[in-house]
Amino acid sequence: MREMRRSIIAASPSFLYALLSRGHFSVARICRCEYPGYGSHRSVCCVSDSFSNNLTTVNVYSSVPNRLMLFSTMAGTILVQARDPAKLNMEILKAIDERRYSDTWKLYDQHMQMEGFPRKSVVNRLLTGFAESLDVQWLEKAYGMVEQAFQESKQNLLEKDPLIYLSLALAKCNLPVPASTILRKLVETEQFPPVTAWSAILAYMSQTAPGAYLAAELILEIGYLFQDGRVDPRKKSNAPLIAMKPNTTAFNIALAGCLLFGTTRKAEQLLDMMPRIGVKADANLLIVMAHIYERNGRREELRKLQRHIDESCNLTDIQFRQFYNCLLTCHLKFGDLDSASNMVLEMLRKAKEAQNSLATATLVLEAAGNDNKTFTALTSGPNPSQNKPDGSHNNSLTELQIISYDEFSRDRNFVKLGNEAKEVLLILLAKLQTQVELITTEHGILQPTEKIYVKLVKAFLEAEKLQDLARFLIKAEREDSPASNDDSALVHVIKSCISLGWLDQAHDLLDEMRFAGVRTGSSVYASLLKAYCKANRPREVTSLLRDAQKAGIQLDSSCYDSLIQSRVIQQDTQGALGLFKEMKEAKIPRGGNAEFERLVEGCAGNGEAGLMAKLLREIKEGQKLDSGVHDWNNVIHFFCKKRLMADAEKALAKMRSLGHTPNAQTFHSMVTGYAAIGGKYIEVTELWGEMKSLASSTPMKFDQELLDSYLYTFVRGGFFVRANEVVDMMEKGDMFVDKYKYRTLYLKYHKTLYKGKAPKYQTEAQLKKREGALSFKKWVGLS
Questions:
Q1: With b meaning 16 or more CB within 10 Å and e meaning fewer, what string describes 461-491?
Q2: Residue of 580, 556, 486 lying closest to 524 (CA atoms)
Q3: Cα–Cα distance between 625 and 332 in angstroms, integer?
Q4: CB–CB of 198/183 below 8 Å?
Q5: φ, ψ of residue 750 in degrees (nearest 5)
Q6: How do residues 382-441 score in pLDDT, each as one tens digit?
Q7: pLDDT at 331 over 50
Q8: 71, pLDDT greater than 80
Q9: Considering the entire predicted model, what is its pTM?
Q10: Measuring CA to CA, which residue among 434, 453, 433 is closest to residue 347?
Q11: % of the chain at pLDDT higher than 70
């Protein structure tokens, strides 16, 4: 008979069962009875040796004071020392206090095998201890403990503050999905976290694209509880719930995250919720709203917002610049070149007035302050704040750290977390400021940048409004006089047209300059003349020479060289000799216009050459905008928002008939409109098919917000085959999907769907529906 080795192990009755069943024994029966001699329990189990198939009786004697168990078997004796759960709890606490995380986890695992979860205080200390480590490995272990507790219906072991602390640590370590899940579990179990706490979690979540999307979802879910006065603030029992209500800071954080990661239609849903829960806008929120309206093409909303911006007295220069940048961009989107050009001219006019006023004031101060120079020099030391640009913030988060749980728990009103949320918000807003390209500020005065000139010129040229373009540029030059005529914006535009081969447009703009009485140098005429000669257009050459003579322009030798060469090519020998004689009589020096030629070559080689190079790059690389799409999108959005879907369908049909192709925003408005009134799943399915066929033949792209709106509608209506198509498309596009939301939605509306056995006889359509539903159920983690 084999000799059984002796060992010391930790054991409980349940652990004994697991031990024996995992060894070479098959446990047939376990019974528990009193052993009279020792006043303890005696457990007897029948086991069979898997090698010999002999039945063996194992007697277990447990001595309570010494926690020893004696296993008597035919093969020998096993001495087992059972661990005291109370002592094990103390060891777990000691290990976590000493930050021995590996030992802590081993001890916790032993306790789970012996007795299940430790006592409540130990569980919560484990969560906060692992959270303090800010180590992803231990944070995931802690989150796994929370998940297991909810799965085993032991969530009463989990306290609110440790869960909030763990959620904060997860968010700081870029784990937004578990962080948001904990917040959702807290709301489900009515352990409502105060907004000052969860807004800080939102702030750190918003540093990533999935986190920003989840932050918006959280505000929508929590805000829904407070819509239209559902919660009575006068009841004392509602105080914890009222403390959770989203505030302006929370909205600012979520909206800024949406803007940074491009989910602006989700952001607009947040804006629609604000008045319904009574949240008021501050200065930051007004600017964030402007960004959202500009991205979504809501020009009328921007115009309404302009009144609040102009009347607001606490906006900074940077905030004014951001708003008018948004308004100007929106005018360009809609092809409203008159409004855009008038804005630029107005800025130039005000800048000139301010500059004149500043010059006058400076002269007065200099005259009055000559006697005080010494005093001023002694008293006015350097101001360090002046060296910082307006609105500059540290655009990166500080080194990853978290306050200790003791300090966290003492701050009962979560003031420190509220301050952290505001600091992160400033970082998010500073990132938005870097996206302002069309307008700058000098001494608090708005001024247009070269970028807006480039975009405006391109738009005028595409619309073939050359006369309006010339008129605008001439007015701009009068307000902002260039150093020389050859350095004006209009001259740069003409030269760009020549470089692109748009010779007729260049000639028209040159005529407009001449008709307006604006003088220019010979370089423009020379460049256009050479281009005409190269293109072999003698009529235009003759016309341009006549215009140059009227304007009193003397052409240089390089122009004569091009003219002579052109006549030779046309075999006009007499004409070539006449031009040579004319050049000699005029005593025109040699040398040509090499400077401009180098400029053009530099532009052609992607070199930097100021406004001209930027214009060339914009025209070559930029896409032509269909401003009509934005107009029709606004009409359709209005009808969908008012739930007038019949009118929205007519507007969509009219949009198509006029040759405008619907885009992702068009379909998103339609789907959300159908979802709002409910029951229109067939219509949404038809839209889905149309959108797929349109995407295969046009450059229209599916985005996360559009696909998510389809997925929500299909799951809500039980169209799981279509829902699986959307899921596949989102996963192929590496888009984030909020599985928690769809798991909750499935349990709410389809909990009992296909729970029994499949019927023996089903049609192919029924089988397909069943398989689709079960596949989706498996995807969300419910099977």
A1: beeeebeebbebbbbbbebbeeeebbebbbb
A2: 486
A3: 9
A4: yes
A5: -135, 30
A6: 343 333 334 444 444 445 789 999 999 999 899 999 999 999 999 999 999 888 888 888
A7: yes
A8: no
A9: 0.77
A10: 453
A11: 73
pLDDT in tens, 109-147: 999 988 899 999 999 999 999 999 999 999 999 999 999
Backbone angles phi, psi at 470, to 5 degrees: -60, -40
Contact between 335 and 660 under an 8 Å Cβ cutoff? The reply is: no
By C-alpha distance, which of 257, 254, 248 is closest to 286?
248
Spell out the residues 6+ positions from residue 464 whose beta carbon is closer than 8 angstroms to its own: none
For residue 463, give both structure tokens: 């619309």
Which DSSP letter does residue 386 get? Answer: G
Q: For 36-126, where are the E strands, in sequence order? A: 40-49, 55-63, 68-72, 77-81
Q: Are 317 and 390 within 8 A, CB to CB?
A: yes
Chain position carrying tokens 């107009």? 631
41: helix, strand or coil: strand
Percent of the chain with pLDDT over 90: 44
Distance, in Å, from the CA atom of 607 to the CA atom of 614, rounded to the nearest integer, reads: 10
- Best CA proximity match to 89, nearest among 125, 130, 128: 125
Position 698, amino acid: T
DSSP string computed for 586-617: TTPPS---HHHHHHHHHHHTT---HHHHHHHH
Per the listing, tokens 């085959």 go with 721
Q: How many CB atoms lie under 10 A from the CB of residue 101?
A: 18
Helical pair 317-333 and 283-295, crossing angle rounded to 10 deg: 20
Q: Under a CB-based contact definition with an 8 Å cutoff, are residues 170 and 137 in contact?
A: no
Residues 6+ apart with CB under 8 A from 115: 12, 85
| Residue pair 489/473 in contact by the 8 Å Cβ criterion | yes
Calpha distance 457→454 (Å, rounded): 5
Whether 780 contacts 742, CB under 8 Å? yes
Nearest in space to 252 (alpha carbons), one of 278, 222, 219, 223:
219
* CA–CA dist 615, 603 (Å, integer): 10
Q: How far is CA 269 from CA 216, 286, 645, in A?
A: 9, 16, 18
Contacts of 151 (CB under 8 A, 6+ apart): none
Question: Which pair of structure tokens corresponds to residue 79?
Answer: 């001495």
- What the block records as the tokens of 452 is 């807006």
d(CA 242, CA 229): 11
The C-alpha angle 115, 116, 121, rounded to 5 degrees, equals 100
Rounded distance between C-alpha atoms, residue 480 and residue 522, angstroms:
22
Q: Point out which residues pair with 35 in neighbouring strands.
A: 40
Three-class SS of residue 49? strand
Assigned token pair, 739: 């599985």
User: Cα Rg for the chain, rounded, in angstroms?
Assistant: 38
- The rounded distance, in Å, linking the Cα atoms of 446 and 321 is 7
- Write down the H helix ranges in 98-173: 101-114, 120-133, 136-151, 160-172
- Answer yes or no: is pLDDT of 99 > 70: yes
